[in-house]
Structure formats: structure tokens, C-alpha cells
Sequence to fold (153 residues):
Amino acid sequence: VDLMGKKKGVVRKEKEEVKLGPDSKDTYTFGVAHILSSWNDTFIHVTDLTGRETYCKVTGGMMVTADREEASPYAAMQAAQEVCERLKKLGINAVHIKIRARGGQGTKTPGPGAQNAIRALARGELSIGRIEDVTPIPTDSCRVKGGRRGRRL
Fold:
């Protein structure tokens, strides 16, 4: 230590910039956008191709304040735009889409936000590979609620 209180021979290291996401030099870097659209909410969950690593997860309920608007097409569109922004930061420029409804005992048709989520992903400068419906369809299921004579209105 010097008399002036300064250390001699200290070399400062520059901080390395941390880059998230896959390191790929291809023209397209693919992810998989899993869209679950029910009558209560719309989930957009983007993973790598294996489905093991999550890149981002946004729901319609994160975009709006009222509970009744969580499943709306507007909330799904806002969620998809947020996903596009996050994927650009990670360096992902293309997605395969797997769209899903409740399935099983529930409804087999996707909710109101599914179409708008796909449209907003396409408009957000993401290339779209394949679009696939992965709704679970039972081959033979449990007994449906409502009893022997069904739900009486």
C-alpha cells in the first residue's frame, strides 16, 4: 500500500455482458409457443423445442385489471405482443405454435383469445413454422357431470 492509500498493480476487469437465450447463428431460431385458451384465461408459454426450458410465460390476466376480461381477445393480443418483445431480447425470431383448449371433460374448442393470440404473434415480426392443435381428446372418459338426465335449465 502506498502512503497515499492507493493500491499498486490493481487491474480492473471489464464486466462481461450476459446474453440469455440460445446461441445460434442460423437465420431462424425456433421456440415453441404453447397457447392454452379457455373461457376464463389465455396462457402463452414459450419454450425451447424440447419443451424443457421456458423462455417466457404471459397470461391474459397479466394484461388487464378486470377478472371478466382475462379471456378476451384484447387481453390475448396484448399478451402476445408482450411475448414478442421478450423473445426479441432473447434472440428468438421464429415459433411453432401448439394451440390447446381445456379438453378432457371440458370443452374441446379453444376459447375466444386463441385466434387473436396467433394473429398478434404473426404481426409481431415472428416467423411461424407449424400450427398444431394439441387439445387432449379422451378415447373413453370418466362419467360427465350432470347426472343421468343431464343438466336441466
Notes: The longest helix spans residues 73-90. The mean pLDDT is 91.
